[in-house]
């Protein structure tokens, strides 16, 4: 399928061994700059899958990271890593000069509105990582940008300064929230998003963060659309657990309603991670992954043929 007019096609992914050229911190997160010309073709919303340990590693599965920024001119791609378990702790411990085995760029990208449109970026925790870069692309395309950057607490806010530098300079609003009130305004990203959506103009929302947050963003946007009458197109970068990252293992399947009204299990790694939020069956998405709705095509309970 060819890309919509004015949208760059995604680059073909490759498996590369690439050097880490910068390893430093971005707030509470590890920040790695990786040099490779193929990875550098990534577009906002896409992700990479990074191998963990050396060839003797018992950690067989790659770990997925959304692309913080990619620069084709510099030949670099950047990721932001929260040291969560053994795999991410190993990746966060890489230093300049180390090499990483990376597959990418993978998955779908955010599709920005045409010039003159409006996008609101909503990031939770490290989900904000791609948004300074996404905002840069939007501003360059003549799109008006506002943003909400949120987290559980101040330590988990990601790249507030980066988002402010781009969105603020272009005259947009950046609202910062934390659940515990330790930075910005106390409350959820959706509280701030609801205010930004009071304006009755057609809006694209691009969101990245935990699945529960993405479901809440979808509900907030639907309520705003109902109230103001202005359409809100919500694109979410989903974070379903991924094992292969390339469409083979079916670990990442998610129930999504098609244009024909039927629900099918799609692969978040290849059909996503950026998906139309209105099509996701959020009723079947939980903290430990998605379940298969009884009415899904091919469901064991006897879904539609
Ligand atoms: C599309 C996408 C983008 C992501 N972007 C980022 C990012 O920018 N920064 C960041 O820090 N993290 C990101 N993550 C989450 C990151 O991939 C997980 O935290 C990581 O896989 C957990 O590995 P671990 O070894 O630290 O944890 P462990 O709990 O030790 O992992 C054990 C096993 O469970 C799997 N697993 C556990 N949690 C997840 C998960 N959420 N997703 C996939 N597999 C999981 C691991 O692959 C591993 O096989 C992203 C995940 C996805 C799917
Ligand atoms: S992670 Fe294997 S199919 Fe998506």
TrEMBL record:
The keyword Secreted does not apply. Residues 9-112 form the FAD-binding FR-type domain. Belongs to the PyrK family. This is Dihydroorotate dehydrogenase electron transfer subunit. It comes from the Bacteria. Keywords: 2Fe-2S, Electron transport, FAD, Flavoprotein, Iron, Iron-sulfur, Metal-binding, Transport. Its cofactor is [2Fe-2S] cluster. It holds the Pfam family DHODB_Fe-S_bind. The keyword Metal-binding applies. SUPFAM superfamilies: Ferredoxin reductase-like, C-terminal NADP-linked domain (SSF52343), Riboflavin synthase domain-like (SSF63380).
